[in-house]
Amino acid sequence: MGIQSQKRISMTQRTNRMKSPTKKRRNIQPTLTGEVAFDSIKDCVICRARHQIKMGITVRVPKRQHDKRCPLNSTTKGKGVLHSHTVACIEEGKRLEKLFNAPLDESEKCRITTQGELNAFFVPKPTTTNMPTTMTTTQKRAARPMAEDFARAVESKASDAEFQRRHSRSGAPLAIMALADYVCEHII
């Protein structure tokens, strides 16, 4: 086989070569829309001049704004051309920031001043559970278990030796297995 057969290309490769641009652009990051991404050193005149000064080349820095897409632009902050909707969103953000960072009024502050008032505020609410000893399945579904019931049931199941032996090979922690077992028995 000679060189000619090694250089021969198929029709699909030839059509792909015809489709591709003749000048290949390397080191260019495309955007979603197919345009070239903004690079402040290449695209912003001021940033390019400052970069050249850092490299030791003497260049005059223009006295004007940075490019609208440059993050050093003081008005757009790198967000590009500001539309009316974008300006409205920025103003709303400033308004909300001012609103939430404002100090509280006296009417909005907590009025609890003594330790007795504090303890009275955080006392748990009494729960009245007057359930009959025998309940039907519909009554069991209607009576919702409380968080304390879950905690007691999980603790008793997790400390049970038989339960520990049955679930010793499972990958889940024993407390999770006990909670799932309790839920299956009482709720589902």
What's the short version?
The chain is mainly α.
Strands, helices and their partners?
Blueprint: H1 3-7, H2 11-19, H3 40-43, H4 45-54, H5 84-100, H6 115-121, H7 137-142, H8 147-159, H9 161-166, H10 174-186
Helix pairs in contact: 8-10
Description:
The protein is mainly α and 188 residues long. It has a domain of 50 residues. Helices cover 48% and strands 0% of the residues. The chain has ten helices and no strands. Helix 8 crosses helix 10. The longest helix is centred in the middle third of the chain and has 17 residues. The relative contact order is 0.04. The model has no long low-confidence stretch (mean pLDDT 78).
Question: What structural keywords apply?
Answer:
single chain, mainly alpha, 10 helices, 188 residues, flat
Q: What is Rg?
A: 36 Å
Structural class: mainly alpha
Fraction in helix: 40-55%
N- to C-terminal distance? 76 Å
Strand coverage percent: under 5%
Low-pLDDT residue intervals, each spanning 5 or more residues:
none
Average pLDDT number: 78
Main sheet overview: none
- The overall strand count is 0
Query: What general form does the structure show?
Result: flat
How many helical elements?
10
Strand/helix succession? HHHHHHHHHH
